[in-house]
Amino acid sequence: MSRDRSLTAYVGLGSNMENPRRQVESALEELKALRPITLLKHSSLYRTRPLGPQNQPYFINAVASLATTLDAEALLDQLQALEQAHRRERGGLHWGPRTLDLDLLLYGGMSIDTPRLSVPHPEMAKRAFVLLPMSEIAPPDMEIPGMGRLQDLLLKLSGEGIERVDR
After folding, report:
1. Coiled coil located at which positions (predicted)?
2. What is the 3-state secondary structure (H, E, C) of 82-101?
3. Does domain 2-165 have CATH number 3.30.565.10?
4. 98 labelled catalytic
5. What is the pLDDT of residue 145?
6. Average pLDDT of the residues in 91-120
7. Which is the catalytic residue, given 5, 87, 98, 167?
8. Where along the chain do its domains lie?
9. Which residue in 103, 113, 116, 167 is the catalytic one?
């Protein structure tokens, strides 16, 4: 089911396999082709240490903002189809390596909690590799539902282990 009006969603992108930079850059281009989705902006790319097991390559991360009339689960379907096109394998090691990870971080100002989807992303307030790129493209006074202002959340995190990659 589609919505009548467009809203803004934020998506986190990450990869640490099979040329991670190319995976993320390609996914950003592919987001432009999805309908009814419009890629509004995307952040710089960031090189980050893995969250889970440290015996894996560093990640390349970014955040994109999208305008869409899709409902949240239909948007999630589109994102997961894009992950599959990049040969994403699910069910492996938790926080393990992946060719492409697309997380629906925010969907308008809504809070969603279903068996399939939690928005805002429950861990985003703890992740500099999400908040720092998001702060490049989000309004300066953005409020994350149930978590607080983006800028306040970012101040609580260390920037250690995250570095901007030149475009």
Report:
1. none
2. HHHHCCCCCCCCCCCCCCCE
3. no
4. yes
5. 95
6. 86
7. 98
8. 2-165
9. 103
Position 122, amino acid: P
Could you list the beta-strand ranges (E) of 16-160.
Answer: 37-42, 45-48, 59-70, 101-107, 112-113, 118-119, 143-144, 148-149
Is the pLDDT at 93 greater than 60, yes or no? no
pLDDT tens digits along 33-89: 998 999 999 999 999 988 776 678 999 999 999 999 999 999 999 999 999 888 756
Is residue 88 flagged as an active site residue?
Answer: yes
Helix H or strand E segment including 137: helix 128-137
> Is 116 tagged catalytic?
no
CA distance 50 to 39: 26
Rounded CA-CA distance 51/54 in Å is 7
Marked catalytic residue, from 21, 87, 88, 90: 88
Please tell me the distance from the alpha carbon of residue 153 to that of residue 155, in angstroms, as a whole number.
Answer: 5
List b or e across 97-136, with b for residues whose CB sees 16 or more CB atoms inside 10 angstroms: bbbbbbbbbbbbeeebeeeeeebbbeebbebbbbbbbbbe
Residues 42 and 29 sit within 8 Å (Cβ to Cβ): no
CA-to-CA distance for 53 and 72, rounded, in angstroms? 30
Q: What is the pLDDT of residue 141?
A: 93
